[in-house]
Amino acid sequence: MIDQRLQMLRMVAHHGTVTAAAEALRYTPSAVSQQLKQLSRELGVVLLEPEGRQVRLTSAARSLLRHADTLFAEWERARAELARHVDEPSGALTMCGFSTAAAALLPPAVAGLRDRFPRVRVETIEAEPSECYELVFAGRADLAVVLLTPTTPSLSDPRFDQRRLFDEPLDLLVHPEHRLAEHATVSLAETAEEAWIVARPGTTYHQLTMASCASAGFTPNVAHYANEWETGTALVAHGFGVALVSRLARWSGQHSVVRIPLRGDPIPARRILAVTRAGAGTSPTLDHALGMIGATAEELIGAMADQRG
């Protein structure tokens, strides 16, 4: 087994403070601090130095972390390989995803796992992409379906295996009597003078809307903030503005709105990724879950393209 003090050090490096690392690992800060001090003494090098309210990793700590990432990835690969020697996998598997994924992509995967591996207990967690990475890294989730954003870990991050599932197109949501409602497609630039309904600052969808509009050459005139699809569509249905909506997004049919595909080069879209801990994705259960999620995503995108056609 790998010395768990290495995971403590990895978590401190990730979070920036001993307190945050301890919370993620469900330890007390004093326990983490004591364990890392002991590791430092055993190795004969200083690993952490105070820097204001945070701590700074020394060069020795960063060297150790590079080796630790390799060790943990190899350990995950070994566990995945050994799992293939088990006739009937059991235990627990946790998947997490942002709201659309949690509604559209994860339930079919859970059903497929239940049928294929009846002795595996499957749990799902709905969470923002940043939290999904935290859950996977801390070992509290095994697989995450996330959006690629400017704040998510880079695709080369050695702690994770990240695979592209698909690029999900974005649509424009307008009132049925809006000037663009009869258009088959619309460019985002055509909405530069519109009032906009966006998610609150700090959320993934706010980042996506602002970045998409910036790419189209304007900053949206924000009239209202709404994090939930249901709230946003209600505001659009009452003529208070326009909004971006993902192709997979669903809401109740009580709001009268028109959904228009966006055009452009490239077409505004959000990239959906599947994330596991480095080395873990080849286990039978995760491999099956990844296959189910990918197949479901392709079916949904194809069905919606046919509906628009």
Automatic annotation (TrEMBL):
Residues 1-58 form the HTH lysR-type domain. The keyword Ribosomal protein does not apply. It comes from the Bacteria. Keywords: DNA-binding, Transcription, Transcription regulation. Pfam families: HTH_1, LysR_substrate. One of its GO terms (molecular function) is DNA binding. SUPFAM superfamilies: Periplasmic binding protein-like II, Winged helix' DNA-binding domain. One of its GO terms (cellular component) is protein-DNA complex. CDD domains: HTH_ARSR, PBP2_LTTR_like_6. The keyword Transcription applies. Belongs to the LysR transcriptional regulatory family. This is LysR family transcriptional regulator.
